[in-house]
Amino acid sequence: MNHPLRLVFVLGVFFALPGFGQQAATPWILDRMQSHSPSSLQLLKSYEKLPNQLEIERGGSVISTSKSTDALYYVEDGNYESALVSMSTNVHEIGHAYGGLIHFAELMSCNCDKTIEFEDIQQGFYHAPGEQYWIEIEQGYIFPSSELSETIPYELHTFRYDTYIEGTSSTQAHGVIGLLDELNAYYLGSKYQYDMLPVYKEVFGSDYLNQWVKHSASEMTAFFEFDFFIKEYLLFAKNYAPETYYYLKNSPDFRKAYQTTQRKYSLLTAAYEAKIETEKNFAELNYESPYWEDDYPGLKKRLDSGIYRGIESDFLR
Fold first, then answer.
1. Nearest-10 crossing angle of helices 175-195, 38-48
2. Contacts of 130 (CB under 8 A, 6+ apart)
3. Per residue in 160-191, pLDDT tens?
4. In this structure, are residues 110 and 161 in contact, taking their beta carbons and an 8 Å threshold?
5. Is 70 exceeded by the pLDDT of residue 14?
6. Alpha-carbon distance 160 to 151, whole Å?
């Protein structure tokens, strides 16, 4: 599945195949994405068409980088069910990978003298075909997310707290930019899950709603989790690192990427809740909440408490 030549074949001709047996789960899921989640499919195709090695020439020097993985690396294609469920993780991870290459790929063909300042933090954000963002942030203004361990209450040490606040992910070196990158990647995976409800009906029959919520709840809850983490980071900056706060506040690119991603993900969770209420008229649901109950109530209470009004006024309006 992961050989580059086979990957090009799968992405390039899946839509021309009339039907697939259970042994052909990868072309089957790509065909369903073409019908139900074309923006997710376009992300994979945009990433796949990039060369494995990307190079730009500036001032007689060559700056290069490379793709980190194949476009379908995270797909478990043993059967339809595993392909359907695992593609969400795949979309999430390729969102990270493609985001890191967006600006590099654009500079390869721009016929300009712009370059990449590697001492800065560089990150792109894909949302849909023709809609993607790029931000360049001076590293010196960014502090690691581990600083938040001093201010986040213990009862709000959520499912992803250890990984993204105290762990060794990009949220340390890249701080709030790493947190925003995660918010965006979880949005992409959640959008895929939302789009693919008709395919859950196809695969799981009468149990489709339980399966859809089961496999969507954690990713949808990630909106509230990373919304909380980012707002905590900005609140910490406002109180203890004002130069960082005002630098980010005065960065149009950061504000645009943050506003757009936060708004789209928020609207997606509202649409998800509404869709569940509609589908409950047709299918049984055995879950009391569409979200991860260990974290969601506390996060929602904190986010609605008013503590972030100043942050929202400065960054989200």
1. 130
2. none
3. 999 999 998 899 999 999 999 999 999 999 99
4. no
5. no
6. 16
Tracing tokens 């697939």 back to the chain, one arrives at 20
Q: Give the whole-angstrom CA distance, residue 314 versus residue 235.
A: 11
First to last CA, the chain: 45
d(CA 40, CA 92): 10
The rounded distance, in Å, linking the Cα atoms of 186 and 223 is 7
* Cα gap 99→78, rounded to integer Å: 28
Tokens read off for 195: 């789009």
List residues bridging with 126 in a β-sheet. 132
Whole-number Cα distances in Å, 291 to 19, 220, 224, 227, 262: 35, 7, 10, 15, 18
Read off the pLDDT of residues 255-286 as tens digits, 9 standing for 90 and up. 999 999 999 999 999 999 999 999 999 999 99
Which amino acid is residue 288, in one-letter code? E
The sign of the torsion formed by the CA atoms of 191, 193, 199, 205 equals negative
The single residue listed with the structure tokens 């998800």 is: 272
What does the alpha-carbon distance between residue 71 and residue 48 come to, in Å, rounded to a whole number? Answer: 6
CA distance 222 to 207: 24
